[in-house]
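so my prof wants the structure for this chain in the tokens format not the other one, which i didnt know existed until like an hour ago. anyway here's the sequence
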Amino acid sequence: MADHYEVLGVARDASEDQIKKAYRKLARELHPDVNPAPEAQERFKLVTHAYEVLSDSDSRRQYDQGGQNPFGSAGFGGFGDIFDTFFGGGGQRGPRSRQERGQDALIRVDLKLDEVVFGVEKELEVDTAVLCTTCNGDCCRPGTSMVTCDVCRGAGQIQRQVRSLLGNVVTSSPCGTCRGFGQTIPEPCLDCRGQGRVRARRKIDLNIPGGVEDGLRLQLSGQGEVGFAGGPSGDLYVDVAVAPHETFGRDGDDLTCIIEVPLHDAVLGALTTINSFDGEERVELEPGLQTGDVITLKGKGVKHLRESGRGNLRIQVQVKTPTKLDAKQKEIFRQLAKLRKADSIKLVEHSSSRFGKRR
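here's what i got, hopefully its the right format
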């Protein structure tokens, strides 16, 4: 590994001004805009990196010390842990991993009631972070690789002497040059800019089971954003939103609807059909139906989410009283009233009300 002082052409005891002047002189000669030769570009990178290390007093001091503990690797023992605790060591030993877990993502899926009844497969499009296919997550330009940090010598930590009431102690903090990774990336991947991941629109096939409810949140493990440097993916959360239906409602796993029955059919009974999510269903109207009566069709409701079977379809009756009658129709009702003269208008006990009666 090239010595930074030799790269800049200065002595090891050079001042900050001398280092700065040497760098400016070399930068003017080697800058790609001035000298496009490949060997000049490589040397320009070395010069720039050397200046970054030597222009910072802390990194220069650590570089001069060779990245080692001023007290040596032995003899400090358990006291070092105590001093680290009090003076900022933090307990981190060695370089930290460049890979990080990706963030979780949240999207919303809009469903219709019929999709909730039976379940549905949806293709979702998610704007997320995916693995960079150019570098496969290693962050480096193809054909290149990471190099050991020449400031911390791959340790990822910088140790410094600090004067305190207890004497000289050593503190440890992440290396500012490699950010604690122990390695640097001389030539980052151009597509992901050294992150190992890129933003992209990804399609996900989602099998939504029957019985999900409005507001339910589904979790898809490992379907979130890819982590930094190709780290493990986060999770994807899907919020379910169910749109109201024009005809049918939902009560738990039961479907509900209202059927309007003409007065004569409510009195005499009839056989009719309704359009349900299963197709046409035959509905028998027994004689004497009252408003509020409920007719139940077993197993025609919503699929149970966590068990087999389905709920029911509950049909509430609403008897339609005619409001416009011709003379002949009125006469028929007058004759019926005479035949039913024993009937009268009266209050009934609330507990005896037929509202909501099931059939």
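also thought this was worth mentioning. Confidence is low (pLDDT under 50) at residues 68-91.
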